[in-house]
Design goal:
alpha+beta; five-stranded mixed beta sheet; flat; about 220 residues; 7 helices
Length: about 220
């Protein structure tokens, strides 16, 4: 595969400048680290979800999904960001290889989830993007956190980046459809459709505010 071939030209991998060096023969070994970090986060969030449900009968989190970015998508993103195609820049520049999406019923729940995640001492927040208070031009709304997650490999602690996206069910509905229509296709979406998508995002925001006010 093109990506693997390009990456594997450099077989010594330095992780985050933290005194760990991995002699990696395969791209899969690196992906294993991301998948391990993702599982750590997924377990913690699932426990949080159940704890709130069973102890306080509150549904703060409706559901969560996880994914590891496909090699083709990693390569496309590296090219788009004009990165050097090697492990170093993959690890440093691409923050969302491991991704978890947390879907909340209400808009206010997003900020509660974010505060709870920030209170975990083992997660180090590297970056946050509040597209809730200030949606993207496209209309996209979501709260993003990039965190460093400790993973114990062969007795050594290494830190792996995981992207957490938190949004409401309504925002998720919009983002999923918009993604299918526009974000991942190479087809140019007409101005009319883009405008309609922005209008729909505004309606969804109104709906989220109205629903929040009812509870
Ligand atoms: P996919 O397929 O979802 O993984 P950065 O490195 O932070 O400077 P980046 O990662 O492009 O740049 O940051 P940004 O804009 O916050 O986007 C990260 C992710 O948010 C995207 O990942 C999407 O999942 C989502 N996203 C951002 N903008 C939009 C949008 O307009 N519409 C939709 N539907 N999703 C969006 P990927 O890798 O682009 O895609």
């Amino acid at each position: 595969m093109e990506l693997e071939n390009s990456l594997l030209k450099q077989d010594t991998l330095h992780l985050e400048g933290k005194d760990v060096e991995i002699k990696s023969e395969t791209f899969e070994k690196l992906m294993f680290l991301y998948s391990a970090a993702l599982r750590e986060v997924e377990t913690k969030i699932n426990i949080l979800k159940d704890e709130l449900k069973y102890l306080y009968n509150y549904t703060l989190i409706d559901h969560i999904t996880t994914r590891i970015k496909k090699p083709e998508s990693i390569l496309n993103k590296m090219k788009k960001k004009q990165c050097n195609i090697n492990y170093q820049s993959l690890i440093e520049e691409i923050s969302d290889i491991a991704g978890i999406r947390i879907i909340c019923p209400l808009k206010d729940d997003i900020f509660s989830v974010i505060n709870l995640i920030k209170s975990y001492p083992e997660f180090k927040v590297l970056k946050e993007k509040d597209y809730i208070t200030k949606p993207k031009k496209s209309g996209y709304s979501s709260y993003h956190l990039i965190i460093d997650v400790p993973v114990n490999v062969a007795g050594k602690m290494i830190y792996v980046k995981v992207e957490i996206q938190v949004r409401t069910m309504a925002m998720d509905f919009w983002a999923s459809l918009e993604h299918d229509i526009k974000y991942k296709t190479n087809k140019k979406v007409s101005k009319k459709i883009s405008k309609e998508l922005i209008e729909c995002a505004k309606l969804i925001n109104k709906l989220d505010v109205q629903m929040s006010n009812m509870v």
